[in-house]
Amino acid sequence: MALQDLPPSRMALLGMLLGLLMASCFTFCLSHQNPEFALTSPEKSSTKEAERKETTAEEELDPEVLEVFHPTHEWQALRPGQAVPAGSHVRLNLQTGAREVKLQEKDKFRSNLKGLKKGRRLDINSNTYTSQDLKSALAKFKEGAEVESSKEDKARQAKVKRLFRPIEELKKDFEELNVVIETDMQIMVRLINKFNSSSSSLEEKIAALFDLEYYVHQMDNAQDLLSFGGLQVVINGLNSTEPLVKEYAAFVLGAAFSSNPKVQVEAIEGGALQKLLVILATEQPLPAKKKVLFALCSLLRHFPYAQQQFLKLGGLQVLRSLVQAKGTEVLAVRVVTLLYDLVTEKMFAEEEAELTWETSPEKLQQYRQVHLLPGLREQGWCEITAHLLALPEHDAREKVLQTLGALLATCRDRYRQDPQLSRTLVSLQAEYQALAALELQDGEDEGYFRELLGSINSLLKELR
Protein backbone atom coordinates (compact mmCIF):
# COMPACT_ATOMS: atom_id res chain seq x y z
CA MET A 1 0.00 0.00 0.00
CA ALA A 2 1.30 3.40 -0.96
CA LEU A 3 1.59 6.14 1.59
CA GLN A 4 -0.81 8.29 -0.35
CA ASP A 5 -3.44 5.64 -0.04
CA LEU A 6 -3.36 5.74 3.79
CA PRO A 7 -6.06 7.65 5.57
CA PRO A 8 -5.15 11.03 7.06
CA SER A 9 -5.34 9.84 10.66
CA ARG A 10 -2.78 7.14 10.00
CA MET A 11 -0.51 9.59 8.28
CA ALA A 12 -0.54 11.88 11.33
CA LEU A 13 0.31 9.01 13.66
CA LEU A 14 3.17 7.89 11.44
CA GLY A 15 4.57 11.44 11.35
CA MET A 16 4.62 11.65 15.12
CA LEU A 17 6.48 8.31 15.39
CA LEU A 18 9.05 9.44 12.83
CA GLY A 19 9.60 12.72 14.73
CA LEU A 20 10.15 10.93 18.00
CA LEU A 21 12.67 8.60 16.35
CA MET A 22 14.65 11.49 14.90
CA ALA A 23 14.71 13.32 18.26
CA SER A 24 16.03 10.19 20.02
CA CYS A 25 18.80 9.77 17.45
CA PHE A 26 19.82 13.40 17.73
CA THR A 27 19.95 13.16 21.54
CA PHE A 28 22.07 10.00 21.37
CA CYS A 29 24.56 11.63 19.02
CA LEU A 30 24.95 14.68 21.24
CA SER A 31 25.64 12.52 24.30
CA HIS A 32 28.63 10.92 22.54
CA GLN A 33 30.18 14.16 21.34
CA ASN A 34 33.58 15.54 22.72
CA PRO A 35 33.00 17.58 25.93
CA GLU A 36 34.44 20.66 24.37
CA PHE A 37 31.59 20.64 21.90
CA ALA A 38 28.94 20.01 24.56
CA LEU A 39 26.06 22.38 24.49
CA THR A 40 26.67 23.84 27.97
CA SER A 41 27.50 27.33 29.25
CA PRO A 42 31.17 27.69 30.46
CA GLU A 43 30.24 30.31 33.00
CA LYS A 44 27.53 28.19 34.50
CA SER A 45 29.85 25.16 34.58
CA SER A 46 32.62 27.12 36.43
CA THR A 47 30.12 28.46 38.87
CA LYS A 48 28.82 25.01 39.61
CA GLU A 49 32.40 23.67 40.07
CA ALA A 50 33.26 26.47 42.50
CA GLU A 51 30.07 25.81 44.41
CA ARG A 52 30.94 22.11 44.51
CA LYS A 53 34.48 22.83 45.85
CA GLU A 54 33.19 25.31 48.44
CA THR A 55 30.66 22.76 49.58
CA THR A 56 33.45 20.18 49.92
CA ALA A 57 35.65 22.67 51.86
CA GLU A 58 32.78 23.50 54.16
CA GLU A 59 32.22 19.79 54.71
CA GLU A 60 35.95 19.34 55.52
CA LEU A 61 35.93 22.34 57.90
CA ASP A 62 32.74 21.30 59.53
CA PRO A 63 33.09 21.77 63.31
CA GLU A 64 31.71 18.30 63.71
CA VAL A 65 34.61 16.95 61.64
CA LEU A 66 37.67 18.99 62.85
CA GLU A 67 39.01 17.97 66.25
CA VAL A 68 41.74 20.02 67.99
CA PHE A 69 44.80 17.90 68.72
CA HIS A 70 46.56 18.79 72.01
CA PRO A 71 50.30 18.13 71.57
CA THR A 72 52.66 17.50 74.47
CA HIS A 73 56.45 17.59 74.69
CA GLU A 74 56.53 13.98 73.41
CA TRP A 75 55.95 12.90 69.81
CA GLN A 76 52.36 11.66 69.24
CA ALA A 77 50.68 10.29 66.10
CA LEU A 78 48.22 12.64 64.38
CA ARG A 79 44.97 11.07 63.20
CA PRO A 80 43.22 12.21 60.01
CA GLY A 81 40.81 15.08 60.54
CA GLN A 82 42.59 16.48 63.60
CA ALA A 83 43.54 20.19 63.68
CA VAL A 84 47.07 21.10 64.84
CA PRO A 85 47.55 24.29 66.90
CA ALA A 86 49.83 26.93 65.42
CA GLY A 87 53.45 26.72 66.56
CA SER A 88 53.45 22.95 66.93
CA HIS A 89 56.32 20.85 65.63
CA VAL A 90 55.11 18.36 62.96
CA ARG A 91 57.16 15.63 61.32
CA LEU A 92 56.63 12.59 59.09
CA ASN A 93 57.73 9.30 60.62
CA LEU A 94 59.53 7.53 57.78
CA GLN A 95 59.20 4.17 59.47
CA THR A 96 55.44 4.19 60.08
CA GLY A 97 54.39 6.76 57.44
CA ALA A 98 52.30 8.59 60.04
CA ARG A 99 52.48 12.30 60.86
CA GLU A 100 53.62 13.06 64.40
CA VAL A 101 53.36 16.27 66.38
CA LYS A 102 54.70 17.76 69.62
CA LEU A 103 55.09 21.16 71.29
CA GLN A 104 58.03 23.38 70.48
CA GLU A 105 60.70 23.78 73.20
CA LYS A 106 59.48 27.31 73.86
CA ASP A 107 55.88 27.33 72.76
CA LYS A 108 54.80 30.93 72.25
CA PHE A 109 51.18 29.91 71.72
CA ARG A 110 50.64 27.89 74.87
CA SER A 111 48.54 30.62 76.49
CA ASN A 112 46.17 30.63 73.55
CA LEU A 113 45.35 26.97 74.12
CA LYS A 114 44.51 27.17 77.81
CA GLY A 115 40.81 27.36 77.15
CA LEU A 116 40.77 24.28 74.95
CA LYS A 117 40.38 20.93 76.62
CA LYS A 118 41.34 17.63 75.12
CA GLY A 119 38.56 16.24 72.94
CA ARG A 120 36.80 19.59 72.51
CA ARG A 121 36.09 20.59 68.91
CA LEU A 122 37.05 23.88 67.31
CA ASP A 123 33.92 26.00 67.38
CA ILE A 124 34.37 29.21 65.43
CA ASN A 125 30.80 29.24 64.18
CA SER A 126 27.89 27.52 65.80
CA ASN A 127 26.97 25.73 62.60
CA THR A 128 29.58 26.03 59.83
CA TYR A 129 32.34 28.48 58.86
CA THR A 130 33.71 29.54 55.52
CA SER A 131 37.33 29.99 54.43
CA GLN A 132 36.97 33.71 55.11
CA ASP A 133 35.96 32.96 58.70
CA LEU A 134 39.08 30.78 59.10
CA LYS A 135 41.35 33.51 57.73
CA SER A 136 39.83 36.04 60.10
CA ALA A 137 40.34 33.71 63.06
CA LEU A 138 43.98 33.10 62.12
CA ALA A 139 44.58 36.84 61.79
CA LYS A 140 43.25 37.41 65.27
CA PHE A 141 45.37 34.55 66.53
CA LYS A 142 48.54 36.13 65.09
CA GLU A 143 47.53 39.49 66.47
CA GLY A 144 47.38 38.00 69.95
CA ALA A 145 50.83 36.47 69.53
CA GLU A 146 52.26 39.81 68.42
CA VAL A 147 50.73 41.54 71.40
CA GLU A 148 52.21 38.94 73.73
CA SER A 149 55.61 39.27 72.02
CA SER A 150 55.44 43.03 72.38
CA LYS A 151 54.75 42.66 76.10
CA GLU A 152 57.74 40.35 76.47
CA ASP A 153 60.01 42.85 74.69
CA LYS A 154 58.87 45.66 76.94
CA ALA A 155 59.48 43.55 80.03
CA ARG A 156 62.97 42.63 78.81
CA GLN A 157 63.82 46.26 78.08
CA ALA A 158 62.65 47.27 81.53
CA LYS A 159 64.87 44.60 83.08
CA VAL A 160 67.90 45.84 81.11
CA LYS A 161 67.26 49.40 82.27
CA ARG A 162 67.19 48.22 85.86
CA LEU A 163 70.50 46.34 85.52
CA PHE A 164 72.50 48.84 83.45
CA ARG A 165 72.85 52.55 83.44
CA PRO A 166 72.80 54.69 80.28
CA ILE A 167 76.17 55.74 78.88
CA GLU A 168 75.23 59.39 79.29
CA GLU A 169 74.89 58.94 83.06
CA LEU A 170 78.22 57.12 83.25
CA LYS A 171 79.97 59.89 81.34
CA LYS A 172 78.49 62.46 83.69
CA ASP A 173 79.68 60.51 86.75
CA PHE A 174 83.22 60.24 85.39
CA GLU A 175 83.29 63.96 84.75
CA GLU A 176 82.15 64.64 88.32
CA LEU A 177 84.83 62.28 89.69
CA ASN A 178 87.47 64.07 87.59
CA VAL A 179 89.15 60.77 86.68
CA VAL A 180 92.63 61.32 85.20
CA ILE A 181 94.56 58.61 83.35
CA GLU A 182 98.17 58.41 84.54
CA THR A 183 101.10 57.83 82.24
CA ASP A 184 103.78 55.24 83.05
CA MET A 185 106.09 58.06 84.07
CA GLN A 186 103.55 59.47 86.53
CA ILE A 187 102.89 56.03 87.97
CA MET A 188 106.60 55.38 88.49
CA VAL A 189 107.06 58.76 90.19
CA ARG A 190 104.17 57.95 92.52
CA LEU A 191 105.61 54.50 93.31
CA ILE A 192 109.09 55.90 94.01
CA ASN A 193 107.61 58.53 96.31
CA LYS A 194 105.66 55.82 98.14
CA PHE A 195 108.79 53.69 98.51
CA ASN A 196 110.96 56.60 99.63
CA SER A 197 108.47 58.00 102.10
CA SER A 198 109.35 57.57 105.77
CA SER A 199 105.66 57.32 106.59
CA SER A 200 105.16 54.24 104.37
CA SER A 201 105.00 50.88 106.08
CA LEU A 202 107.16 47.94 105.08
CA GLU A 203 104.24 46.34 103.24
CA GLU A 204 103.60 49.55 101.30
CA LYS A 205 107.25 49.82 100.29
CA ILE A 206 107.36 46.21 99.12
CA ALA A 207 104.15 46.71 97.17
CA ALA A 208 105.58 49.82 95.51
CA LEU A 209 108.74 47.97 94.45
CA PHE A 210 106.73 45.02 93.21
CA ASP A 211 104.60 47.28 90.98
CA LEU A 212 107.62 49.25 89.84
CA GLU A 213 109.35 46.09 88.59
CA TYR A 214 106.50 45.58 86.13
CA TYR A 215 107.09 48.98 84.49
CA VAL A 216 110.91 49.01 84.27
CA HIS A 217 110.94 45.91 82.08
CA GLN A 218 110.39 48.35 79.21
CA MET A 219 113.61 50.04 78.15
CA ASP A 220 112.03 53.50 77.87
CA ASN A 221 110.46 53.25 81.31
CA ALA A 222 113.79 52.19 82.84
CA GLN A 223 115.45 55.23 81.30
CA ASP A 224 112.64 57.45 82.56
CA LEU A 225 113.24 56.00 86.01
CA LEU A 226 116.82 57.16 85.64
CA SER A 227 115.82 60.62 84.40
CA PHE A 228 113.94 61.68 87.53
CA GLY A 229 116.35 60.07 90.01
CA GLY A 230 114.29 57.00 90.82
CA LEU A 231 117.05 54.56 89.89
CA GLN A 232 119.37 55.91 92.57
CA VAL A 233 116.59 55.69 95.13
CA VAL A 234 116.20 51.99 94.37
CA ILE A 235 119.99 51.45 94.45
CA ASN A 236 120.09 53.04 97.87
CA GLY A 237 117.40 50.60 98.92
CA LEU A 238 120.09 47.88 98.79
CA ASN A 239 121.48 49.41 101.99
CA SER A 240 118.26 48.74 103.89
CA THR A 241 118.37 46.64 107.02
CA GLU A 242 115.20 44.86 105.90
CA PRO A 243 115.98 41.73 103.82
CA LEU A 244 112.69 42.08 101.93
CA VAL A 245 113.57 45.61 100.85
CA LYS A 246 116.96 44.41 99.60
CA GLU A 247 115.32 41.52 97.77
CA TYR A 248 112.72 43.59 95.93
CA ALA A 249 115.09 46.49 95.27
CA ALA A 250 117.44 44.01 93.56
CA PHE A 251 114.44 42.61 91.69
CA VAL A 252 113.65 46.06 90.26
CA LEU A 253 117.30 46.72 89.39
CA GLY A 254 117.69 43.40 87.61
CA ALA A 255 114.71 44.22 85.38
CA ALA A 256 115.98 47.76 84.71
CA PHE A 257 119.57 46.67 83.89
CA SER A 258 118.60 43.99 81.39
CA SER A 259 119.91 44.91 77.90
CA ASN A 260 119.81 48.62 78.77
CA PRO A 261 123.35 50.09 78.43
CA LYS A 262 122.39 53.60 79.55
CA VAL A 263 120.93 52.33 82.80
CA GLN A 264 123.87 49.94 83.30
CA VAL A 265 126.38 52.81 83.06
CA GLU A 266 124.44 54.94 85.55
CA ALA A 267 124.17 51.98 87.91
CA ILE A 268 127.94 51.46 87.93
CA GLU A 269 128.46 55.14 88.64
CA GLY A 270 125.81 54.99 91.35
CA GLY A 271 127.64 52.22 93.24
CA ALA A 272 125.21 49.41 92.46
CA LEU A 273 127.96 46.83 91.80
CA GLN A 274 129.62 47.28 95.18
CA LYS A 275 126.31 47.06 97.02
CA LEU A 276 125.31 43.86 95.20
CA LEU A 277 128.63 42.17 96.01
CA VAL A 278 128.37 43.15 99.66
CA ILE A 279 124.96 41.49 99.97
CA LEU A 280 126.28 38.30 98.32
CA ALA A 281 129.30 38.24 100.64
CA THR A 282 127.31 38.60 103.85
CA GLU A 283 124.70 36.50 105.65
CA GLN A 284 121.39 37.06 103.92
CA PRO A 285 118.27 34.95 103.30
CA LEU A 286 118.46 32.73 100.24
CA PRO A 287 115.57 34.52 98.39
CA ALA A 288 117.38 37.84 98.78
CA LYS A 289 120.61 36.38 97.40
CA LYS A 290 118.74 34.92 94.43
CA LYS A 291 117.38 38.34 93.46
CA VAL A 292 120.75 40.02 94.05
CA LEU A 293 122.50 37.45 91.86
CA PHE A 294 119.87 38.11 89.19
CA ALA A 295 120.63 41.85 89.33
CA LEU A 296 124.39 41.16 89.17
CA CYS A 297 123.99 38.97 86.07
CA SER A 298 121.87 41.65 84.34
CA LEU A 299 124.48 44.29 85.17
CA LEU A 300 127.49 42.31 83.89
CA ARG A 301 126.11 40.83 80.67
CA HIS A 302 127.15 42.75 77.51
CA PHE A 303 128.88 45.39 79.62
CA PRO A 304 132.68 44.81 79.55
CA TYR A 305 133.44 47.82 81.73
CA ALA A 306 131.26 46.41 84.50
CA GLN A 307 133.05 43.06 84.09
CA GLN A 308 136.38 44.78 84.61
CA GLN A 309 135.12 46.43 87.78
CA PHE A 310 133.68 43.12 88.94
CA LEU A 311 137.12 41.48 88.70
CA LYS A 312 138.82 44.42 90.42
CA LEU A 313 136.36 44.33 93.32
CA GLY A 314 137.01 40.62 93.92
CA GLY A 315 133.79 39.40 92.41
CA LEU A 316 135.19 35.93 91.61
CA GLN A 317 136.15 35.40 95.26
CA VAL A 318 132.64 36.43 96.35
CA LEU A 319 131.05 33.99 93.94
CA ARG A 320 133.43 31.21 94.99
CA SER A 321 132.44 31.61 98.62
CA LEU A 322 128.80 31.67 97.61
CA VAL A 323 129.11 28.40 95.65
CA GLN A 324 131.05 26.57 98.36
CA ALA A 325 128.55 27.42 101.11
CA LYS A 326 126.13 24.71 102.19
CA GLY A 327 122.59 24.73 100.86
CA THR A 328 123.40 27.00 97.91
CA GLU A 329 123.28 24.43 95.09
CA VAL A 330 120.64 26.50 93.29
CA LEU A 331 122.90 29.53 93.40
CA ALA A 332 125.88 27.43 92.27
CA VAL A 333 124.15 26.49 89.01
CA ARG A 334 123.29 30.14 88.36
CA VAL A 335 126.87 31.22 89.05
CA VAL A 336 128.23 28.59 86.66
CA THR A 337 125.77 29.76 84.01
CA LEU A 338 126.94 33.37 84.52
CA LEU A 339 130.59 32.39 84.12
CA TYR A 340 129.80 30.44 80.94
CA ASP A 341 127.93 33.47 79.52
CA LEU A 342 130.79 35.84 80.30
CA VAL A 343 133.46 33.55 78.79
CA THR A 344 131.51 32.89 75.57
CA GLU A 345 130.43 36.54 75.27
CA LYS A 346 134.06 37.75 75.21
CA MET A 347 135.06 34.96 72.81
CA PHE A 348 132.24 35.75 70.37
CA ALA A 349 132.94 39.50 70.53
CA GLU A 350 136.59 38.95 69.58
CA GLU A 351 135.68 36.53 66.79
CA GLU A 352 133.04 38.91 65.43
CA ALA A 353 135.55 41.76 65.40
CA GLU A 354 138.01 39.67 63.36
CA LEU A 355 135.41 38.42 60.86
CA THR A 356 132.98 41.29 60.32
CA TRP A 357 134.61 44.42 61.80
CA GLU A 358 131.20 45.38 63.18
CA THR A 359 132.29 45.57 66.82
CA SER A 360 133.39 49.08 67.78
CA PRO A 361 137.14 49.40 68.54
CA GLU A 362 136.35 50.91 71.93
CA LYS A 363 134.14 48.02 72.98
CA LEU A 364 136.64 45.47 71.63
CA GLN A 365 139.38 47.15 73.65
CA GLN A 366 137.19 46.92 76.76
CA TYR A 367 136.65 43.19 76.24
CA ARG A 368 140.38 42.64 75.83
CA GLN A 369 140.92 44.28 79.20
CA VAL A 370 138.62 41.75 80.87
CA HIS A 371 141.07 39.08 82.07
CA LEU A 372 138.41 36.62 83.08
CA LEU A 373 139.99 33.27 82.12
CA PRO A 374 143.25 33.86 84.02
CA GLY A 375 141.24 34.99 87.03
CA LEU A 376 139.10 31.83 86.92
CA ARG A 377 142.21 29.62 86.82
CA GLU A 378 143.87 31.49 89.68
CA GLN A 379 140.73 31.43 91.85
CA GLY A 380 140.38 27.65 91.49
CA TRP A 381 137.29 27.65 89.30
CA CYS A 382 138.64 24.76 87.22
CA GLU A 383 138.28 22.42 90.22
CA ILE A 384 135.10 24.06 91.56
CA THR A 385 133.30 23.64 88.24
CA ALA A 386 134.45 20.02 87.89
CA HIS A 387 133.11 19.12 91.34
CA LEU A 388 129.69 20.62 90.50
CA LEU A 389 129.29 17.89 87.92
CA ALA A 390 128.18 15.63 90.78
CA LEU A 391 124.87 17.52 91.06
CA PRO A 392 121.93 15.13 90.50
CA GLU A 393 119.79 17.28 88.19
CA HIS A 394 120.23 16.78 84.45
CA ASP A 395 119.77 20.49 83.79
CA ALA A 396 122.50 21.38 86.27
CA ARG A 397 124.84 18.80 84.73
CA GLU A 398 124.16 20.24 81.29
CA LYS A 399 125.19 23.74 82.39
CA VAL A 400 128.30 22.43 84.17
CA LEU A 401 129.32 20.45 81.08
CA GLN A 402 128.94 23.58 78.96
CA THR A 403 131.16 25.55 81.35
CA LEU A 404 133.77 22.75 81.47
CA GLY A 405 133.92 22.87 77.68
CA ALA A 406 134.29 26.66 77.66
CA LEU A 407 137.14 26.46 80.20
CA LEU A 408 138.86 23.50 78.53
CA ALA A 409 141.60 25.53 76.87
CA THR A 410 142.43 27.23 80.19
CA CYS A 411 141.92 24.28 82.55
CA ARG A 412 142.99 21.25 80.49
CA ASP A 413 145.97 20.35 82.66
CA ARG A 414 143.94 20.86 85.85
CA TYR A 415 141.23 18.55 84.52
CA ARG A 416 143.73 15.83 83.72
CA GLN A 417 145.18 16.03 87.21
CA ASP A 418 141.76 15.59 88.80
CA PRO A 419 141.03 11.83 89.13
CA GLN A 420 137.56 12.52 90.56
CA LEU A 421 136.56 14.33 87.38
CA SER A 422 137.55 11.35 85.23
CA ARG A 423 135.58 8.93 87.41
CA THR A 424 132.53 11.19 87.35
CA LEU A 425 132.66 11.50 83.57
CA VAL A 426 132.93 7.72 83.10
CA SER A 427 130.00 7.15 85.46
CA LEU A 428 127.88 9.73 83.68
CA GLN A 429 128.85 8.22 80.34
CA ALA A 430 127.38 4.86 81.33
CA GLU A 431 124.25 6.49 82.74
CA TYR A 432 123.53 8.57 79.67
CA GLN A 433 124.28 5.71 77.29
CA ALA A 434 121.38 3.82 78.83
CA LEU A 435 119.12 6.87 78.70
CA ALA A 436 120.11 7.61 75.10
CA ALA A 437 119.29 3.99 74.17
CA LEU A 438 115.79 4.45 75.59
CA GLU A 439 115.41 7.59 73.51
CA LEU A 440 116.33 5.65 70.38
CA GLN A 441 113.72 3.02 71.23
CA ASP A 442 111.15 5.80 71.45
CA GLY A 443 112.16 7.04 67.99
CA GLU A 444 114.08 10.15 69.11
CA ASP A 445 117.18 10.29 66.93
CA GLU A 446 118.46 13.55 68.45
CA GLY A 447 117.27 13.42 72.05
CA TYR A 448 118.31 15.43 75.08
CA PHE A 449 120.37 12.63 76.64
CA ARG A 450 122.20 11.95 73.38
CA GLU A 451 123.38 15.56 73.42
CA LEU A 452 124.62 15.24 77.00
CA LEU A 453 126.33 11.97 76.09
CA GLY A 454 128.06 13.71 73.18
CA SER A 455 129.39 16.45 75.50
CA ILE A 456 130.74 13.82 77.92
CA ASN A 457 132.41 11.84 75.14
CA SER A 458 134.06 15.00 73.82
CA LEU A 459 135.47 15.87 77.25
CA LEU A 460 136.78 12.34 77.81
CA LYS A 461 138.44 12.41 74.41
CA GLU A 462 140.14 15.75 75.18
CA LEU A 463 141.40 14.55 78.55
CA ARG A 464 143.06 11.36 77.31
Account of the protein in words:
The protein is mainly α. Among the domains are: 168-300, Leucine-rich Repeat Variant (Alpha Horseshoe); 303-388; 415-463. Helix content is 66%, strand content 3%. It is built from 22 helices and five strands. It has helices at residues 8-31, 42-60, 131-163, 167-177, 184-196, 202-215, 219-227, 230-236, 243-257, 261-269, 272-281, 286-300, 304-312, 315-324, 329-355, 361-368, 372-378, 381-387, 394-406, 408-416, 419-441, 448-463, and strands at residues 67-68, 76-77, 82-83, 89-92, 99-102. The strands form two sheets. The protein has a three-stranded antiparallel beta sheet, with no helix packed on it. Strands 1-3 form a two-stranded parallel sheet. α19 packs parallel to α22. Mean pLDDT is 82; it is low at 33-48, 53-65 and 107-126. It comes from Odobenus rosmarus divergens (Pacific walrus). GO terms for molecular function: adenyl-nucleotide exchange factor activity.
Secondary structure layout plus pairing:
Layout: H1 8-31, H2 42-60, E1 67-68, E2 76-77, E3 82-83, E4 89-92, E5 99-102, H3 131-163, H4 167-177, H5 184-196, H6 202-215, H7 219-227, H8 230-236, H9 243-257, H10 261-269, H11 272-281, H12 286-300, H13 304-312, H14 315-324, H15 329-355, H16 361-368, H17 372-378, H18 381-387, H19 394-406, H20 408-416, H21 419-441, H22 448-463
Parallel strand pairs: 1-3
Antiparallel strand pairs: 2-5, 4-5
CATH topology of the domain at 168-300: Leucine-rich Repeat Variant
Shape: elongated
Number of strands: 5
- Reading off the top of the CATH hierarchy, the class of the domain at 168-300 is best stated as Mainly Alpha
> Strand order within the widest sheet?
2-5-4
